[in-house]
Design brief:
6 helices; 66% helix; elongated
C-alpha cells in the first residue's frame, strides 16, 4: 500500500514552533498517537515503524520505547486514538435506550 501521494501527506510532520525545554507529556503523547493513527489508517501496520513515528511526531525513539514496549502496543493505542470518536456511544439516559441506539447505529 505504498501510494506516493498518501506517503507524502502522512510523512510530512506538522510545522511547530518550539520554545525552550521539554514539551508537556500530554502534548507529546497526543502527537505520537496522532502520527500513529494517520499512518495506520492511510497505509496499515506494515509501514509503521518506531523510526517513522519518532520522525513524524518529533520525539525520540527512546521516548517511544519507554511508553510502548512493542510496535503492537503502539499500533493498538494509536488506532484506538484515531477511531475513538467513531466508537463512542451516545449517552441516552438509560441503559436500554443506549443499547438500542448503539445497535441501530451499528446496523445502519
Amino acid at each position: 500500500m505504498n501510494n506516493e501521494a498518501t506517503a507524502t501527506a502522512v510523512d510530512t510532520p506538522p510545522a511547530r514552533t518550539r520554545g525552550r525545554g521539554r514539551r508537556p507529556a500530554d502534548e507529546v503523547r497526543a502527537d505520537v498517537l496522532r502520527a500513529v493513527g494517520d499512518v495506520l489508517l492511510a497505509e496499515g501496520i506494515a509501514d509503521l515503524t518506531f523510526e517513522r513515528v519518532a520522525r513524524l511526531s518529533g520525539v525520540s525513539k527512546t521516548t517511544l520505547y519507554k511508553w510502548w514496549p512493542s510496535k503492537g502496543a503502539l499500533a493498538l493505542d494509536g488506532y484506538f486514538h484515531a477511531v475513538q470518536d467513531r466508537l463512542a456511544f451516545p449517552d441516552t439516559g438509560t441503559s436500554a435506550r443506549t443499547c438500542s441506539s448503539s445497535s441501530t447505529r451499528s446496523c445502519a
